[in-house]
Structures are given as C-alpha cells and as structure tokens.
Design a protein that fits this description.
With about 280 residues, this protein is mostly helical. It is built from 10 helices and 2 strands.
C-alpha cells in the first residue's frame, strides 16, 4: 500500500512537471504565432513542444527517453490509424454537401491547384486526382515530423502517465481536454466568427479523436498509429475537403474543424470505440 502511494505521488509529480514545462515552452511559440508573422516555422515550433516537454520531463525524472513507446506497432494498426480520418472526414463533408451546407467544386481551388501542379490545361478530374494523391502521400509524409512532435508528447508520454492513475475513459477525456486547450490561443486569435462556438466544436472533436487514438496506441503499444491518424486528419480536412467546398451562409457552422459536422461524425465513432475498449478491458 505504501509503495502504491509512493508510485501515485511520483506519477502526479511527473504529470505536473510535464504540464508546467509544456505551458512555458508553448507560451513562447504561441506568442510568436499570435504577435509576430504567423509563419509555418512558428506553428511547427509549437507542434514540437509536447515532444520537447516529454523528453525534458523524462530527463528531470531520471528516466530514459527509450521508455517511450517507439516501436512501430504493426502495419495493421498504423494503416487503420490513417484510414479512420479518411472515412470520417469524407462522411462529414459528404453529409454537409448533401444537405447543402456547402457546395462541392470550388473553382478557385481548382485554379490554384492547376497553377501549383503546372498543368493549366488539365481537366478538373485530373487535377483533383493528382492533387489528392500528392496530398495524401507526399504532403502527408512531409508533415510527419511536426505531427510526431505533438504525438510523442500527447500519446507517447502523457496518456501512458495518466493511465497509471485513471481508467481508459478518464485518460481519454483528460488528455483530450488538455490537447484541446493547448490549441485555444491560436483559435481565439485566428478563428474568426463565433469564438465560443468554434472552441466548443473543436473541443468536442478533439476529445472524440482522443478516444479513438488512445484505443489504438494502447492496443498496439506504440504512438505511431496516433501519428498516422493525426497526420491524415490534418491533410484531409485542411488540404483537401475544405478547399474543395464552396462556402454558403451555413458553411462556417458546419464544416472544417470549427463546425458541427466533423465533431458529430467523430463522436459517433468515439462512442463505438469507447464501448469497444470497455468490452476489451482496456
């Protein structure tokens, strides 16, 4: 019993240290993003802060960085981690287009993509196909470094520490809320529109995503499925489906990471994985 109390105190100390270091290091990057030119380098710097904070915390706690779940985790879990966001993003935007919350086929995006590809005379379908393939593969691979910077901290370190103290469900909720709040300064500064509504939608989406991601990292013993999941989520929303959507009066309320549709679809999936985790005793 005494050993258990000691272990609990040690874990709480580790978690407080991590959150404190992350708060300080992220504040510097948030300042640069909000007050200086919001260059991608500053955003990339912010995304590396969870990994840096985890590594510093481990060092200060006399633990090895090799303690993190670096193993690949199996092709199946990583493939599923990539494909799940493809499914829910496509479903969410498909529903939004079906109910006319936005229209599909943004001509401005097609013109930009033709210019980027250097194919000004290419057909629309050729442009869409080529750009989606390049985004889904090349841009995805390019983004893995900064995505891993986040996931090493969140799903490689934080959730494993939380799990020492909490149930699977509580671990998902706490880690998801911390992850969401960490994004708030950028949303408040650059979101536009109804900030409280955007924060509510984004938080709901992030917490739901955390349930699915945490399930796969615990099942695989690796944070790589979360890296695949996170990278695919960003690419398919930010680089493919949102640019393809023509805005209407309702678009802002329903699409992107700050609208209703993606959180609603992800929440349904999260409930399935919540029940699945409980049935499997995670």
């Amino acid at each position: 019993m005494e050993q258990r109390a000691t272990d609990t105190r040690s874990t709480i100390t580790t978690l407080m240290l991590f959150v404190g270091i992350l708060t300080l290091t992220s504040a510097v990057a948030h300042f640069a993003i909000v007050r200086l030119i919001p260059a991608s380098l500053y955003v990339g710097t912010l995304m590396m802060m969870p990994a840096l904070s985890a590594c510093v915390t481990l060092k200060l706690r006399s633990r090895n960085i090799t303690d993190l779940p670096w193993r690949w985790g199996g092709f199946g879990a990583n493939r599923t981690g990539y494909l799940i966001p493809v499914f829910y993003v496509a479903a969410a935007y498909g529903l939004a287009w079906f109910f006319r919350f936005g229209e599909v086929g943004n001509s401005e995006t097609f013109a930009e993509w033709r210019a980027q590809l250097g194919l000004p005379e290419a057909s629309t379908w050729m442009v869409i196909t080529l750009m989606v393939v390049l985004m889904a593969v090349v841009q995805f691979v390019k983004s893995l470094g900064t995505i891993a910077g986040e996931e090493i901290g969140w799903r490689g370190f934080l959730v494993w520490e939380l799990r020492k103290l909490m149930s699977f469900e509580a671990t998902c909720l706490v880690s998801g809320l911390l992850w969401a709040v960490w994004h708030y300064p950028i949303i408040i500064a650059y979101g536009g529109g109804n900030t409280l509504f955007q924060l509510a939608c984004f938080t709901s989406m992030i917490v739901a995503m955390s349930v699915i991601m945490t399930y796969y990292i615990f099942r695989s013993g690796s944070f790589w499925p979360a890296v695949m999941f996170h990278g695919a989520h960003n690419i398919y929303i930010q680089k493919i489906f949102t640019p393809l959507t023509i805005e209407t009066d309702l678009t802002e309320v329903w699409i992107d990471e700050y609208g209703l549709m993606v959180p609603l679809v992800v929440a349904v999936l999260a409930l399935i994985y919540w029940r699945k985790a409980r049935a499997e005793g995670l």
